[in-house]
Amino acid sequence: MNEGALLGVYNYIKKDIAREEDLSQIEFYEHIPEDFDKLYFFREYCWVVIHSGMNYAAATKIFDNFWGKGRFNFVGIKHKGKNAGIRKVYEKLDKYFFQYKKSKNKLKFLENLPWIGPITKYHLAKNLGENIAKPDRHLVRVSEAFGYSNAEDPYKAVLKFCEKVSELSKDKISIIDTYFWRFATLHRENYLELFQNLMESCTGCYHYYKKSHLEKYCAQCNCSLHYVSRAKIEGVKAATKRIKKQENIPCGWIEIPPGKEVIDYAEFSALDYLEEKKENEGEKIEKRD
Predict the structure, then answer these.
(1) Do 176 and 123 touch, CB atoms closer than 8 A?
(2) Which residue in 13, 219, 281, 287 is deepest, having the highest Cβ count within 10 Å?
């Protein structure tokens, strides 16, 4: 797996989601309280149960009707099994919350709650602050697309994939899981094809050079993205010296458009470049000898 390309794809996904919608779901996972109370526990349990097997918009409507009127509207939950499960947890909430806080294996405990299964236990654990991924069908397919698969235990493959992206990006696993899941739901019909196209295009980092009087940057994707940070911290010249020590790396030289500063391109993804290139038909790409 080309780590530079993988991180390039992830950075593109983050930008794509920021363009498409607000980041409330991402912000939720960034601000989960460490010491939450039983009402928070019950709320997240209810949300996961209601959301199970249902699209986000429909689940939100039912959940808001249940939770948002100053009292719990059990009548609004038409699914008999989910309704019974939520009622049971509500009636014994003190007991369940106490047992959860004391449990050493929280995933195992959560799986034994009414209407929580082998997949939804990960969703609930994530919503309660555990830094894990949920191996739903989208994340399993995404992980497989990037070469991470495990037929016997799909969760291990999903977790390993998210751990690699976390290592590269420094984002939490629960955040990475949410970005990839949301991208898949936004592009439900063709997200795997989009990933393939992103991986085949130059989706790595952009390293900065000075060549003659022109400021230029390298659009190759075979090396580590750490050099982007190096360029920011050390300046272009120092970063260039580090990059030139590498051998046998095919690079494309692209002139920075007039009026742009080098640092403007520090987070410039490949797809952004390709989109801009289409809009500027006269732009020329010089190939490095």
Answers:
(1) no
(2) 13
